[in-house]
Amino acid sequence: MVSYFVPRGRFLLKAGNLRQVVQQQHQQAQMQLQTTKASQPQAQNGSWPVIRHFRQFSSNSASKEAPLHHRRPPPHKFKQQLNSSQEVAQVRRNVLARWTGFLLRWAPMGICVFGAIEWQLQKRRCEQEGQPRTASELQSRIYCSLPLRIISRCWGWLAACYMPPTLRPYVYGWYSNTFKVNLEEAQFPEYEHYSSLAEFFTRPLKEGARTIDQEAPLVSPADGKVLHFGSASESLIEQVKGVNYSIEDFLGPLQTLEQANSGVPYAQALKKKQDGSTELYQCVIYLAPGDYHRFHSPAAWKPSIRRHFSGELLSVSPKVASWLPGLFCLNERVLYMGQWKHGFFSYTAVGATNVGSVEIYMDAGLKTNQWTGFNVGKHPPSTYEYDELELNQTAPATEFGKGDLVGQFNMGSTIVLLFEAPKNFKFDIVAGQKIRVGESLGHIAGSK
After folding, report:
1. Who's near 418: CB < 8 A, 6+ residues apart?
2. How much is the average pLDDT of 147-165?
3. Which residues are within 8 A (CB) of 232 and not within 5 positions of it... i.e. 6 or more apart?
4. How high is the pLDDT of residue 404?
5. What is the 8-class DSSP label of residue 190?
6. Phi, psi at residue 103, to the nearest 5°?
7. Cβ atoms 157, 150 nearer than 8 A
8. pLDDT (0 to 100) of residue 240
């Protein structure tokens, strides 16, 4: 039982005894009033008994002459005021509870109805314009507002946790069956060898499990699925069929002032040869969760700078890539730009949801999937800003040979190649094809 105390003078009285105390005070006041009236004649004759009751009389007279807002209300009025304040508080609580229940009951349904209407309106707009069904600006912002970076960081921490040996066959076995993992080609096919999920994801392959095509000028850098390939000579290039992204937003500004002041389109300014004998090409390869998660060099080339865009961590699955324009420009990515025997060459590892980190073996200072704060409803500045590192000044010159190991994803993601090649370069792949490390991506027609 809760006790409430009402202050009176220098004492605290329990609310349960309030009525009794008020009655006693009322009786004392009446007795003092009678005593005062009886002593008034004596006071007029100059007698001293008035002094004995001076304190009581002065307090009673002060209370009578006090303003209305300083008087203590009668007991029945005090009880009415107490009951009325309790009733007002109860009404407020009831109204708040009703509104809370109304919002919790109907707000999710309203959000779903609004989402369905927006989805159908965007679908109709795309059909009227004859374009693929893609996300609107509102849908893109809502998707980017999801706490995907927090989820990815939590998943990265969980994947790095120690796995008890007794659970490894069950957890890794379930994962292998779900995503069709081929452990026969792994260097360590026993589940007990991998102490964490991260080690299992980034498992190495047996020696000779992948054969590098030495005749092809360009080979696949990873095991995965070919999302798109083709020419990249325009400012907008396709990430999948019919869905574009900006090559300038993806790579960032040109490296030199000479290129920026050349007055030619961005894609043409990237090329090392300006005699018209070469063209810019691209190839996008998606790594699924069950694929081999390490990636290799597709050709012999030399990187000169590294740029790290710590943007979003959206899914890069084929369905999302075909729905969200500019996906590769929004996501966190690490790109290396340099040169190969035919001119410009860039190699980009794109991050994604639940990718704990992107590791580049030659670049120990690279840190990905870092906390960037809450950015609800808008893209963080890091989506368009980047950290740049000139590799030749900070470390010995690095050169990759065809098939050399470059790095690893701690979950499935995407590799994007943008390179300069002769105009007679022809791809040997088709969209949607499954490809493995070392297999040919294309050839130069007419060359031996």
Report:
1. 232, 247, 251, 270, 280, 281, 282, 344, 345, 346, 348
2. 87
3. 247, 267, 280, 281, 282, 418
4. 94
5. -
6. -65, -45
7. no
8. 75
Give residue-wise pLDDT tens across range 47-83. 444 444 444 444 444 444 444 444 555 655 555 665 6
Report, as residue numbers or ranges, the catalytic residues: 223, 296, 413
Q: How many angstroms separate the CA atoms of 315 and 354, rounded? A: 8
Amino acid at 238: E
* Residue 221 CA neighbour count, 13 Å, CB half: 29
Length of the chain: 448
The amino acid at residue 303 is P
For the whole prediction, is pTM greater than 0.85? no
Contacts of 66 (CB under 8 A, 6+ apart): none
pLDDT at 57: 42
Decide if 414 contacts 350 (C-beta within 8 A).
Answer: yes
Using an 8 Å Cβ cutoff, are 168 and 194 in contact?
yes
Amino acid 423: pLDDT? 92
Report the 10 Å Cβ neighbour count for 254: 15
Nearest to 410 by CA among 218, 138, 159, 37: 159
Supply 1's token pair: 């039982």
Task: State the burial class of residue 233 (Cβ atoms within 10 Å of its Cβ: 0-12, 13-18, 19+).
Answer: middle
Strand partners of residue 420: 280
Q: How far is CA 447 from CA 151, 215, 307, in A?
A: 49, 11, 34
318-344 confidence digits (pLDDT tens): 888 888 888 888 888 999 999 999 999
- Angle of helix 137-144 relative to helix 75-129, nearest 10 degrees? 120
For the packed helices 54-65 and 18-44, what is the interaxial angle rounded to 10 degrees?
A: 110
Residue type, 165: P
- Give the C-alpha separation, 284 to 230, whole Å: 10
Type of residue at 230: G
Return the residue matching tokens 């080339």. Answer: 301
Six token digits for residue 345: 């060459």
Strands 224-231 and 278-286: antiparallel
Name the pLDDT band for 366 (thresholds 50, 70, 90): confident
Distance CA 111, CA 114 (A): 5
Element (H or E) spanning 107, and its range?
Answer: helix 75-129
